Amino acid sequence: MRKINWLKSVGYPMPPPLMLEANGVLRNTFEEDFGEVHAWEGYEINLMCRSAWNYVWQELPKKVLRSTSRRAVSVVSFNGDKMLFACTGLLISWHARTRTRTGTRSHARQVILTSASLIRTRDDEDEIDKNLRIEVFLPPNQRADGTLELYHSNYNIAIISVEKHFVAARPENIFSRSAQKLPKKVVAVGREAPEGLLLASMGQVIDMPRWVDTELDCKDLKFSTCKIKKVGIGGPLVTSHDGSFVGMNFYDDTCRTPFLPRSKIVDVLKGTDLPSERGLNCPVNMMDDPIEKNRWPVPEAYWYHPIFDEDLGPFRPLVGRVLQ
């Protein structure tokens, strides 16, 4: 009953008959780890069993771990007390402008760049729920309520602001450099929600032929061989040598990871003011109404057990949609 009550509280599908009794596994949840799991200093639990022998951080320069751990955050949306979506965000510097009596003053502000899937409704992926409560977590103990400032449905981008600055954070200025050639070796970074553990998977940027099947139809997407889970949605793809931002990751439940390159993100965001800096108290959609809209479906959770896999396989989409 504890398991059932928890499933209901987070909106996951109920298990088919005998699935719990046979120790079936719920896949595609927001709680699934990927790659190597890393904790902050002072964390007392051994994480070796959760990293599945995927060593990443020890192969990277220490400065990559230091900078990434201070700018990758967990972002969770709630409808009341019910969690709707959990993913990763990147703290970035936003050069806002404040009007004073003597003129306009520029200053840097911390905001979170993440996926707009965080604030999409479950009933219609094209609709944005502007009334969700958003929580931002930078481990080990910094939590803040987030406010949706900007979103772009066509490129699945959201900008979340927080009232206070995170202490010892290292926001990245994604606008500081011109577009460069994509690196070969990259690292996909995620931050899980319950404890804020850092996740990382290493891979390479690859050229994918257009005939490869994917439900994400944005033509500006690139691909890497980094393997992530749903919690890595919205998280940064960084270079392996210095940890600089390459793009924002998405997830389609395949053997590779789509990402939106930094250059496209900057093109979408540059020259835009935060609504709160203009005295507005509602989020702004940056997207003009295009003739064609990109689709950004997120794989649904489903129950799996090898004994039942052959029988349940054709019904997997149906099982995933039975939400309580």
Order of helices and strands: HEEHEEEEEEEEEEEEHEEHH
Summed over residues and divided by their number, the pLDDT gives a mean of: 85
CATH topology: Thrombin, subunit H
Morphology: globular
Give me the oligomer status: single chain
- Amino-to-carboxy terminus distance: 15 Å
Which strand order spans the largest sheet, edge to edge or round the barrel?
9-10-11-14-13-12
Report the top-level CATH class.
Answer: Mainly Beta
Number of strands: 16
> Beta fraction of the residues?
25-35%
Q: How many whole angstroms does the radius of gyration measure?
A: 20 Å
User: Which class do the helix and strand fractions yield?
Assistant: mainly beta
CATH architecture: Beta Barrel
> What is the makeup of the main sheet?
6 strands, antiparallel, barrel
Count of the separate structural domains: 1
Share of helix, binned: 10-25%
**Poorly predicted spans:** 311-315, 317-324
Determine the number of helices (DSSP H or I, runs of at least 4 residues).
5
Protein model, in words:
With 324 residues, the chain is mainly beta. The protein is 11% helix and 33% strand. The chain is built from five helices and 16 strands. The protein has helices spanning 2-10, 62-69, 262-269, 309-312, 316-321; strands at residues 25-27, 36-38, 72-79, 82-100, 103-115, 133-138, 142-152, 157-162, 185-191, 198-206, 222-224, 236-239, 245-249, 257-261, 284-285, 302-304. The longest helix is centred in the first third of the chain and has 9 residues, at 2-10.
